[in-house]
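Blinded run. Sample ID left blank on purpose so nobody reads anything into the name before looking at the predicted structure. Input follows.
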Amino acid sequence: MITLRQLEFALAVAKHRHFKRAAEECNISQSALSLGIAELEKQLDTQIFERNNKQVLITPIGEEILVRAQRVFSEINDLTTRAQSHQTPLAYPMTVGMIPTIAPYLLPKVLPELKAQYPNFRMTVVEQQTERLLEQVRYGHIDTAIIALPYAVDGLHTFEFWQEDFFAIFPTDNPLAKLETISSDQLGKANLMLLGEGHCLTDQALTVCSFDRDEFKSNFSEASLNTLIQMALAGMGTTLIPEMALEQVHRQNNEVATIPLTEKGPHRRIAFVTRLNYARVDDVNLLGNIFKAALEADKQNYESDA
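Blinded prediction complete.
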């Protein structure tokens, strides 16, 4: 069987047109190199080099063989380079799924730090509900997804990097805006508006508040969380927002009050999910660490300004 080492010998001889110098480049004895060339020619059943005491010539068929050998080595080098660059953090683009109640609040906080640390990294974001994202992860259509736990993720790895509470939102002229905390009973009487079926924030809110899923009916199956926020600020009821949305909500609305829940948190946990055999687990862990650090810094800044 032809070996890469034999091809290396032949390419070195072609480069130097001299067996001794080729042997020195390959870090072997001249006799070992000559033996390797002879074995290669035997396996190919053709002569690659004409040699005598004065010069080394390449035969016509040898020229063709060496061109192909160089092509093989180039492919091997490319393969090695690609494998090594794969070990470099965030060396390749990544498609990341995010649920709608995370993406618009998380991305503004983490992207500046991500770009500062890894300016060449390219991330494509796919925004879908949780079940659809998990399906895309399982089938390899996306690299990973960021979802909110608890949620059933059978057959997938999870990498938690954040946890947070829910807050009720009111206009400042609402009497409930003066509360230090708000209970489930008070929420139930305040016309709590939640997203429709398929949104995990709704399921998690119902669990936190111990509301009966069969009795609670959402009329906002096609609405976004931002729509519910605007409706709450218009005095049409209240909704729950995740902690990572607080800074954005207060920055965009001066007359807003966000009230923590009486029910003990954390109310949801944020995690990456990947396939069990996903090759870029280190990159996912790295993203999780970057996102966590950015969220912690943002939270400290928000609390110091509050």
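Unblinding after everyone has recorded impressions. The mean pLDDT is 88.
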